Write the structure tokens for this entry.
Amino acid sequence: MPAYSGVLFDEHRKLNSIGATSRMLTREGAWPNMRISDVKVIYPKLAQDPDQPYLHKTPVPGNDNAKYHFVLNEHDLAYTFSLTSTRDAACGA
């Protein structure tokens, strides 16, 4: 898990994605290296991306303009995550 991460902007200079670091939690309490089964308890709408089996996505509770993306490692741990926009501009973090 990285000690630092990146913030991505779209072509209009609007915030698009914030990557997690080793010390970050989601507002609901998910953290890096959490078992994906435990992440699913926190986020019942968590779904595997059909094109990328290592990627799971879920809407951010209370924010229709953002999703969390959880990246799994070979041990089914959510190695890292990001807060990502579901619209063209701003993730509404």
Q: What stands out?
A: The beta strands are 7-9, 15-19, 34-35, 47-48, 55-60, 63-72, 77-85. The chain has one helix and seven strands. The mean pLDDT is 82.
